[in-house]
Amino acid sequence: MEQYADCFARKDTRRHLTTYVRGQLSDLPRKSVEPIALHAGVAPRTLQNFLSLLSWDQERMRTRVAEIVVGDHSHPCAVGILDETSDDKNGSKTPGVQRQWCGSLGKEENCIVTVHLAYATPEFHCLLDGDLYLPQSWDQDRARCREAGIPEDVVYRPKWRIALELLDRATAQGVRFRWLTFDEGYGGKPEFLRELASRGQKYVAEVPVSSTGWVTAPEVTDRPWRKSGPGRPRNAPRLKSGSLPARSVAHHLRHSPAFRQQPWVSYRVKEGQKGPIVWEVKHVTFFPKDENGLPGEPLRLIVARNPLDGEIKYFLTNDLEASLATLLLVAFSRWKVERCFEDQKGEVGLDHYEGRTWVGLRRHLILASVSYLFLAKVHQDQRGEKSGVDRLPSAHRNVRAGEVLVA
Hints:
The chain is α+β, with helices and mostly antiparallel strands. It has 14 helices and 17 strands. Strands 1, 2, 3, 4, 5, 6, 7, 10, 11, 12, 13, 14 and 17 form a 13-stranded mixed β-sheet that branches. Strands 8-9 form a two-stranded antiparallel sheet. Strands 15-16 form a two-stranded antiparallel sheet. Helix 3 crosses helix 14 and helix 4 runs parallel beside helix 14. The longest helix is centred in the C-terminal third of the chain and has 26 residues, at 358-383.
């Protein structure tokens, strides 16, 4: 806790940090303010004020988490993983709560959604940062926002915009990712991929089957084109007349000669409860359709098929040099952020926040990262020289994990 001492101007406020973190690391079944306070023998109102009212620098604490990760766990092949999690809530006072898709329950429910950035290396992973997704219904009701202490400049942002802010904040704090990876909820946003490319950030993005583009780039002309008679000429640049239209990635897999003439190659991705998990893979160069209907910069389209159940995943990457095995390792590393969510909810009470203020929720997210970073560091120290990661998320919590291996 001494690493965070300069986040507090007063010693009595700093003591509450230790109380809160000890509570998160305890065996209490519920790790909200009241059980933690009663367990520590302090008044619940004291810890409530610590989260919501007392003056201390939570932004510096967030930066300190990043500094510790960079200083102790920096890795040349670090992967950043973007994902969101949801926590069901009763009532209507928790900031951002509304009836929306709740991934943790698999249905629409009254819940809040937070977007997170994880840091992962072959031997270590943790959550670096997280932020609240504020629905449009909240943004349109500023009186409700003021009641929850949400500043006027905090407005509705698409989740991919929040993800970019998390990335920019981390890189400003010295964190560097060799690759980013994320699911199709983010990979299906072309503007998000362009923003990453403009930052020089390599990514391996799962994309929806509806993503469109070309395996062979069509020709583009700058000549305006006018039909006979009146009317404005067609804008240029444009596709040359007779060019094939953009097709979905699923269509290309079924019909493109570039895919059909290429055999499936098997890769063992990791060990599961019932043995090796194998994916069959094909890949081609792909030119995504941009907002003007033109071919964008060349990417690599990777298609992975599970031979046991026929599940197919599509990935796009702007890394044209890394080996296919390496890119698969990145693409299938998203289980690490799921493990972070599972551990933070099961071990430190990430989903146990019961307050009604925006600043309290933000501080709770940061404190959960502080507690989990401690657990991750102790876990790594006690594991010693054992190679690889420990376990995969599972209902039985007994699944060993391995790296991608070429079969």
